[in-house]
Amino acid sequence: MDVAKRMERGQHLLERMLGPEQAEAVRMSWRQISPQFEEYVVEFVAGEVWSRAQLDLRTKSLVTIAAVAALGRNLALDLNIRMALNNGAGREDIVETLLQIAPYAGFPACWEGLAMAQKIFSEADQKT
Amino acid sequence: MDVAKRMERGQHLLERMLGPEQAEAVRMSWRQISPQFEEYVVEFVAGEVWSRAQLDLRTKSLVTIAAVAALGRNLALDLNIRMALNNGAGREDIVETLLQIAPYAGFPACWEGLAMAQKIFSEADQKT
Amino acid sequence: MDVAKRMERGQHLLERMLGPEQAEAVRMSWRQISPQFEEYVVEFVAGEVWSRAQLDLRTKSLVTIAAVAALGRNLALDLNIRMALNNGAGREDIVETLLQIAPYAGFPACWEGLAMAQKIFSEADQKT
Amino acid sequence: MDVAKRMERGQHLLERMLGPEQAEAVRMSWRQISPQFEEYVVEFVAGEVWSRAQLDLRTKSLVTIAAVAALGRNLALDLNIRMALNNGAGREDIVETLLQIAPYAGFPACWEGLAMAQKIFSEADQKT
Amino acid sequence: MDVAKRMERGQHLLERMLGPEQAEAVRMSWRQISPQFEEYVVEFVAGEVWSRAQLDLRTKSLVTIAAVAALGRNLALDLNIRMALNNGAGREDIVETLLQIAPYAGFPACWEGLAMAQKIFSEADQKT
Amino acid sequence: MDVAKRMERGQHLLERMLGPEQAEAVRMSWRQISPQFEEYVVEFVAGEVWSRAQLDLRTKSLVTIAAVAALGRNLALDLNIRMALNNGAGREDIVETLLQIAPYAGFPACWEGLAMAQKIFSEADQKT
């Protein structure tokens, strides 16, 4: 497989997980800060790692949320909560994932994750 | 619900997730370092958080592995890989969870998780 | 002891450590993001862990500030600096705790903790 | 050597790495939150650690950016990106340092670092 | 004050907190890996930060244990548990400090801290 | 460019940075724990990220050491100290990098990094 093909696969997957508009918006924001960063995320992270077949997208979303919430990486947490909702995870799944990691990463990490989830859920409700 | 009931529920769940011998062994090790620590883990972590109904045990195992691998907490990582195998996660699920978090927590965190998983898998093979 | 009793004990302790209004405000914010999160914090974190007798509340506040500042968990840091002031810790105690951890968690973690402490102290001064 | 001499050396180095105005501004902000913190940073961090001769300032800036971006310490990251630009590191050097650590600290840490770098670069462009 | 005086003060404090033999042993181990590291720890960390007057040594030990346990820094955790026992903290104080941070840094961090504390306590018992 | 070419480039770079024997040994260890992990590290981390042209290999080694030492990732720290010595970094450069991050990531992180560096330097001396 060549890199261009991975890039295409990553682009399609991002569009599926974010919707075409949000996918373009986040890619644009990456491109502005560094075209290489955009490339690596689309090609390698989305087009390769996320494209692996063994785990379904919903499970991948939940384990990714667990990791980035534990590490307190807010930009990635925001993006991954949004993607999770398109990957078959319900709001409760996201909340329960954050509650599950509370004893492991600490309640403060859980709290920050829940606060971000709630903000995203509220925004979604107001759009409807 | 009272705390004693939670304790009982946590004890049963730990036995299910670790087998009765390993459950007793890890509880003994906790008791020796601090009886309160054992109580809190059995009652609150196992008997309450792990006993929540929304996510299945396999998913909970995978998100927990993601969080503790990201944080580099080795005692908990070892225990949670062992429990995952009794919670319906195959070896591949564990490996794929660790690969999925590589771009998020870094390849070094993934590497340490995979090395620990391999050690546990090898031990299991030698027992058979 | 049953869980309801712990809950009551946790509620009283939170009111003592935050004042009744702030206690209600933070509990409301937890309830909105997840009623289970509120329950766990009030019952287990406040009603059980904070209610242990061996260390006094002032010492517990300072060690908690040290841990959450080291981890960079800002929501919990803000809350714990406010609680520390009601738990018998003076402003200097909080500042000195953050200076003490500077060589251990790094000056940047200390800096972020001091900046948050100063913001809280200034707000308190303006209320008077 | 006495501490006052180190302090003087640290002050000169900070002025060189930040320009006299920004150096005064950041020192003032430290003084307001804690005079001891200002002293330690100027005397020990700048006047001693940064004043060591083996590595040049550009290399020191890049390794410091790598460490604080990995740890997600935003106040220090902001300051160190600004100092790097006066220490002989070009914008590309900073971007490449952040890309280099992406596989080690994770893409989310890299993303947050790049977003901050871009903000600083934009501000600089608007001043010109 | 000059640096040599701080060094002397730091050396005395280390001897008080570790006993003369252990103080010499740990300083020797630092000297072997880097004489500058030894100097900075003795002069700045012990002779300056630990020598501040506002907080007593027992409280400083407990907040330091909280920070390094939260961060999972095992060499520093081992040293600080040993020093705490000479700084007026009883074994229960150390255990309670680690239990207090369990909900904040997570049970795995608490577990690793308790396991190390138990090892140190056992060694001490066997010497008697 | 296709992935196979990156893989080849990554393989050559690893051999250059580790020597052919150590490169094969570490690749074998990765292959045993997960062939995909080996692939990703050789192809993407070595063949793409490390192969970028802007920063020289010595600088890349030092910033990577800074990041993994800050995060406490020991397997990667060990590997990167070994590679740094083949990438034009002297022992002093490595020690100075670790001293430089002491105020940022904390002295405990620096200590663990220096201890590992010393172990690697000693082994190298004994081979000679």
Write out key terms for the chains shown.
128 residues; mainly alpha; 0% strand; 7 helices; homohexamer; globular
Order of helices and strands of chain A: HHHHHHH
Please, what is the average pLDDT of chain A?
A: 97
Total number of helices of chain A = 7
Q: What would you call the structural class of chain A?
A: mainly alpha
Q: Give the tally of β-strands of chain A.
A: 0
Characterize the biggest β-sheet of chain A: none
Portion of residues in beta strands of chain A equals under 5%
Helix content of chain A: over 70%
Low-confidence spans of chain A: none
Shape of chain A: globular
Q: Give the radius of gyration of chain A.
A: 15 Å
Q: Using CB atoms under 8 Å apart, which protein chain pair has the greatest interface? A: A-B, 32 and 32 residues
Explain how this protein is built.
Six copies of one chain form a homohexamer. Chain A is 85% helix and 0% strand. The longest helix of chain A has 21 residues, at 107-127. The first copy, chain A, is globular, with a radius of gyration of 15 Å. With 128 residues, chain A is mainly alpha-helical. Chain A is built from seven helices and no strands. Chains A and B meet through helix 3, helix 4 and helix 6 of A and helix 3, helix 4 and helix 6 of B.
